[in-house]
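Sample 1 of the test manifest.
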Amino acid sequence: MVLEQLIAITEKEKKARKEICIRCCMAAGCMSSRGAEIKESIEKAVSEKGLQNRIEVRRVGCMGSCGQGPMVGIEPAGLLYQHVTPENAASIVEGLSGGSAEAELGDPKHPFFSRQKLIVCANSGRIDPERIEDSIEAGGYLTLQHVVSELQPSQVIDAVLKSGLRGRGGAGYPTGLKWGTVAKSPGTRKFVVCNGDEGDPGAFMDRSVLESDPHRVLEGMAIAGYAVGADQAFIYVRAEYPLAVSRLQTAIRQAKHHGLLGNGIFESTFNFNVELRIGAGAFVCGEETALMASIEGRRGQPHPRPPFPAESGLWGFPTLINNVETYANIVPIVKKGPDWFASLGTEKSKGTKVFSLTGKVRNNGLIEVPIGITIREIVEDLGGGAPDGAKVKAVQTGGPSGGCIPVEHFDTPVDYESLVGLGSIMGSGGMVVMDEHTNMVDVARFYMQFCMEESCGKCIPCRAGTVQMYELLTKIVERRGTRNDLEQLEELCDLVKHTSLCGLGQTAPNPVLSTLRYFRNEYLELLNKEVQESGSSGVQEQKT
Amino acid sequence: MKVIKPPLPSEDKRWKIVDAKMRRLGYAGHALIETLHTVQESFGYLDKEALSFIARALRVPPSRVYGVATFYNFFSLKPQGVHTCVVCLGTACYVKGASQVLAAIELYSGIKSGETTSDKQLSLLTARCIGACAIGPAVVYDGIVAGHRTPDNAVEKLEGVIGDGA
Amino acid sequence: MAKTLTINGQHVSAEDDQTLLEAALDAGIKIPTLCRLEGLSEVGACRLCLVEIAGSAKLQPACVTKVVEGMEVQTDTERLRKYRLMILELLFAERNHICAVCVANGHCELQTLAQQHGMSHVRFSYLYPQADVDASHDRFVIDHNRCILCTRCVRVCDEIEGAHTWDVMGRGTNSRVITDLNEPWGDSQTCTSCGKCVQVCPTGALFEKGKSVAEMAKRREFLPYLTLMRQQPR
Amino acid sequence: MSKPKLATVWLDGCSGCHMSALDMDERWIELASLVDLVYGPLVDTKEFPENVDIVLVEGAVSSEEDLEKIQKIRKQTKTLVSLGDCAVTSNVPSMRNRFPVPVVENRSYRETAQLNQQVPREVVPRLLPKARPVHEFVKVDVFVPGCPPSADTIYYVLTELLAGRMPDLTNLTRFGA
């Protein structure tokens, strides 16, 4: 592959484009509501009316408003249909040929869409994720071509550093610094790893990106490989995401076929091979040292850091690990320049962040917003508040490692530091809205059960501490808890947070700590007044 | 030293698929999880014979193979039912009532999560999060996701799924 | 090149690639450990050897933290003692440790540590899990009720004996040490019956048949011996 | 001024802790001048008295009767001492905890019985689902581990408490001692 061939594909694609494009969402959300049948029925209507020359029906990835799906979009009219069914899908074609469409029309001017800033998701819902030609037409692999033929690795790292991009997996470590460390680490081999083990319950950003624009991620990884001097990459995706896995497999095959991955990319000396690794259902594998153990075919148990993967990672070689969304940001940063990227966001947190907005909120779905937007804007303006006239009480960010932020702090701008200040974390981008009917102690117990069951069992505080905390929370939820139990729960939170080996354990108490901080009353109301003064921990099953 | 490859456990063609997977990854120890995936996909579960064969073929100690197979939720050491029903218990589904959906399905099927009915027709499982949060509560019937589940429509759909296959 | 640091205010000099724990031991400062055993690889899992290092917000495990010039380390603060006691209590509550009828009574590292940390009782609810005893081996027994999952047996079998008969199955609190494909120990095809696992086990989880209450003292001399004999001549 | 009232209680245990207390031998004579022994297996009192100053509790809480007793004892006593591993950790009585109560009863009263193979429903108190240490039910003031704690340890605990001090047992006893 050379630049001219890329351009030729682009030209050919442009020529083949038709007057009207009907975009059918075929990401996992809409697919589960018969998205494939909808596309078939639209195609059938188009061919029955003999409109194949005017109308193209395209499979696309996620358009964001998954809660209103299945979605169908019309270009260039800019129409958006929602809750489409295979039965009324044909009428959309009717509407394009003089008749009227029965399908429900959505509002593309709604703040849910208009307030977004699309960088990572720029191609999502627009291109066919299973055709590399679509990606190329949208500018795909042009940046990689530029990088390998025009830039020195250090220039790439400088650009990423200057952009201010921070890791989108949750911790927010400056991406450029990490790249620099890996580039400098001595090693006869180096590896690039993409962490797509999106385990936070209530989060699906990475799934959506992989299902909608897999080439963007592959290109970002290749640029990373060039920058740090790695020739082999692994992309680790959860087995729970079969569609993302199959689209990635397709994308890797196509990229290899076109010589965009493999040896001598763009006729340079740069080799870059990507292998897919499927997770097998272990949340802890989102932790980088556990993920590497899993890639090596072992139990996904973390090991103490240092040594960090950047120095000693896969099989002891320097390894760069970033998450899906981080890699998806690389192409725009290199293409449009770090200054452009750094102009978005807040002083310390640049760019945009993709969130999955779910729970007790009217507009469920995937949103990409500039960092620094307030929680209130996200929940009330984009999300439209709680359904059925209920009052929003809190939003949970960061999954089992995060916390619940109460409505009185909704004017806080969303960035890494401010969320930590509120006792939560940015995390990978899950935002679950809770309304007045949500029992916060029960939510804390839900997360604790999650952490208990996902604890790998290696270190004692996490393995045994989460069990004790879960038992105590259960007692409190079932109104059998005492003041002593609450005290013991807080002591255990302190222990597990400060003594656990890895991030899973160190953050497992967060949902409890944050609900204790903001909703302590809910705990106190549940305490058993009768036995409050009696002995210590009391007993679970004696009454049964 | 020449490495002696163990013979395939039987004539069953599926072992060829498993062997091909291991060959593609150079019979390296790190191929263990990928290989277990292939066996699980081909046979539906991992039995002792399979684990023992993989241990020898990849030269990984049997206890490590067993340790890995039981570490990850995705692998099953017992045969699954003809149909599977996976109730998502991710946060978004949970706050929208997934536990009631699960309770209704448990009541209907007479089995708890993680169990298979005695007639081997249905295995009931729960998932951490399948990423279908926006359409929660979500249930996966035989690999196909259904969103917006209520206790009633979840059971109704299950009846349909089991009925079709019987 | 030697490094100097302070541990509990005491000036200590250490070899370049020593861990904090080794440097402390050389200086006569004891830091409690449970998963660690000299001669085996470090896993940093029991968290008893966590120490405070000036300038570091996080507690660090002394067994895997390398010494750094000028480091100021505290190994025995009130906070650390409190955490250590809680970790030990968690272990007692997690399985069924009944010292009074244990073969290792009086020779048990868990029991000794509990006493050293002033444990008068366990504040956490006992979990009373179902745990089995496998006495199928001719000479040895594994009693899972007393296992603390330190993985010394797994490591000694893999790293010293080279058999890798042991590993861990499951995860979280349901983890169990297993032999081969979770088969009875006595049926193991890989076990050489060397007994190293029994000798390194810190509690009475692994013991020799024929030993009664308080009779199972462990003999560990083989480990430093084998480590020494296997060193490459310089 | 009347002497402090001492009581001893035997819940689910083997009486070994009481035996060990008896091993204080002639020191009992000294103690008799310091306390009134008002209740226990060695005393012919049917009801646990009011306003007890110190109670030594041997044994785990294993049955409904144990539970009633310990709650009453707690209400009527100033200083409650968990004496020995059964009271402190539930020790040997807890070895039945892995089996459901009906299985335990069946084993004890049917499978291993020579005569009258039936589970008693009267007189013998009903078992709780699990035998648990005393402090999981009521507040405990002093913990004295040991199986049994030595006579010296028990003597030390009593004399310290009577002197108004909290005994420090760190180096005197431990679980299983």
